[in-house]
Amino acid sequence: MVRFSLILFSLLTGIASASAAGISDFINNRNCDQVLDKKFYQICYDYKAKGALFVGYTLIGNNMEAGNIKKRPRFYPDRDIPARYRTTSSDYTKNEFHADRGHLAPDASFDYSKRSLHSVYSMANIIPQYSRINRKTWIKAERYERQIARKLGSVNVMNGVIYGSNPKRMHKSGIAYPEAYWKMLYDNHGFERCFYYKNDSHEKIKGDKLRDHLVDCKLVKTGRPGRPVAHKMRPAPKAS
């Protein structure tokens, strides 16, 4: 069983030594069955779950204003993953969980070029997300990461998936259905913010606020996100 070690890592372009140390602490052969370098982001892939454990990337603020390509690509199976562990778009068709093909590296954060947008349509970047959470609540955290990238100039993002010890699975494909997932935003100047979402059809949708999902990043890093504690979010500092 792959160890679910949740270690904060850096994806700081242009600072090779710091970046290498952070990535190797997190994305390595101990923690991941396979590491996928998608050029624009990285995936820690779990064969048993048939899905990602972690996806990390750095967003550049200027890219958030570029491109904005409207036409979306088709989902495609990731041929770098052995056939028995890879997933296809059709695996999700009419599934019993009413789950969307949920992006971890979101398409709207990578629509600044055709290559970057195509990369996030790899099925290795997709997990089952309950449709209303994906479309109504998780999307707010995705928007927020782009807002922070614009404000700070860049932001590092780590997404984590919690499958549990005995996850439910899609009958047709055997894909594990996550219990929850989280998103961590941070930079190298002390900014850090984490959000946690249960992947549950009974979760509140109406009136949901981004701050409802705010959790202590220290708990996220140790693998114990805990229950979200709603409070007023401090505004992010401006880029120096």
TrEMBL record:
PROSITE patterns: NUCLEASE_NON_SPEC. Its EC number is 3.1.30.-. It is an enzyme of class 3 (hydrolase). The active site is at H103. GO terms for molecular function: endonuclease activity; hydrolase activity; metal ion binding; nucleic acid binding. Residues 1-20 form the signal peptide. SUPFAM superfamilies: His-Me finger endonucleases. It comes from the Bacteria. Residues 37-230 form the DNA/RNA non-specific endonuclease/pyrophosphatase/phosphodiesterase domain. Keywords: Endonuclease, Hydrolase, Magnesium, Metal-binding, Nuclease, Signal. Mg(2+) binds at N134. Residues 38-230 form the ENPP1-3/EXOG-like endonuclease/phosphodiesterase domain. SMART domains: Endonuclease_NS, NUC. Belongs to the DNA/RNA non-specific endonuclease family. This is Endonuclease. It comes from Mariprofundus ferrooxydans PV-1.
